[in-house]
Each structure stands twice: as structure tokens, then as C-alpha cells.
Amino acid sequence: MTYSLNRITLLGHLGQDPVARFSNAGTAFTTFSVATTTRWRDRQTQEQREETEWHSVVCWGPLAEIASKHLHKGSQVYVEGELRTRKWERDGVQQQRAEVRARDLIMLSGQSTHSGSTTYGKAPQSGHQRAEKDQQRSQQSSTISSQSNPQPDLSYDDIDDDIPF
Fold first, then answer.
1. pLDDT tens, position by position, 79-132
2. How far is 158 from 46, CA to CA, in rounded Å?
3. DSSP letters of 88-150?
4. Is the dihedral angle over the CA atoms 101, 58, 56, 117 positive or is it negative?
5. Distance from C-alpha of 48 to C-alpha of 106, rounded to nearest angstrom
6. Distances in Å between the alpha carbon of 65 and those of 128, 136, 139?
7. Mean of per-residue pLDDT scores for the chain
8. Beta-strand pair 93-107/48-60
9. Confidence at residue 110, expressed as pLDDT on a 0 to 100 scale
10. pLDDT at res. 135
């Protein structure tokens, strides 16, 4: 049996303010672009070089409404989702565009919680579930922003659970 995975993770800055719209079915969606920059040193000239890649992102439903209200040009954001190719025909010519369909969004600048980031996902949650998820994301975002502090690897023997079966 073969497996496949379609998962995109981006950490970058918005290149423009998000654009909020509604589909024909009345579902809210928001689009924006995220810039990611790769830096390296040129081997021949020893000069610092960089290349910026632009990624089209689309959020749907409640996540779209949150993104349109709280994100703006220059905002730093962590986006997790899947790569989708949208195809359509314009004036008899086939068009296509690759875009990231966001599932999770963490705002790393701008309006934030006490942890320095605000997390949003696709499903509404109760206050208790949201608090637990915010705590988990807070821990995750501190790991992302602090790569010099690696987490120890755990094995199944290290997990202490009280499940009776």
C-alpha cells in the first residue's frame, strides 16, 4: 500500500492586505500572498544572496473572516495547509493557479495573546478546548521561534498513560 501527503508549511510576511470575498454559495473566503525568503552565501563572491518566493494563500469560512480582520500587509504569519491547483477557462484559454488552502493560521505579529502569537484553526471550539489548543500552539510557536532549543525525542516507553485497555 502506498501513502501520499499534501502538506504545506509557510512562515513569512504578507505582501499585501488580505482580500475578503464570498463564494456564490455565500461562504466567506480570504486571499493573500505570503513571501518566504531563502538566504545563502555565494561560493564564488562570498556575498550574501537571497531569493524571495511568493505563495498565494486562501482561507475559507471562519478562518477567512479572522484573517481578513486581523492580518495586514507586513504581518508575520505561520500558515499550514495543502497545495491545491485551481483550473478555469478564460476567453477559451485554460488557466491554472497553485495556491495554499490554509487549515491553520498563527499570527506572529500584530494583535496577539500573552504568548506572542494568536492561533486560529478551521473548526470552532469550546472555551476549554480553545484554551488547551492555545496552550499547545503557544508551546509549538515557541519551538518554531527558538530552533536552538530542540525538544528531546520520546519513545513509547517514555509515555505514561493510564488507559486501562
1. 999 999 989 899 999 999 999 999 999 999 854 433 344 555 544 444 444 455
2. 46
3. EEETTEEEEEEEEEEEEEEE-SSS--TTS-EEE-SS---HHHHHHHHHHHHHHHHHHH-TTSP
4. negative
5. 29
6. 22, 23, 25
7. 78
8. parallel
9. 57
10. 55
Q: Which three cell numbers stand for residue 126?
A: 469550546
User: Given 2.40.70.10, 2.40.50.140, 2.40.10.10, 3.40.50.10540, which CATH number is that of 8-38+48-138?
Assistant: 2.40.50.140
Decide: helix, strand or coil at residue 62.
helix
How far is residue 117's CA from residue 62's CA, in Å, rounded to a whole number? 18
CA atoms within 13 A on the CB side of 79: 30
Residues in the chain: 165
Domain boundaries, the chain: 8-38+48-138
- Condensed to tens digits (0 to 9), the pLDDT of residues 4-27 reads 999 999 999 999 999 999 999 999
Entry pTM: 0.64
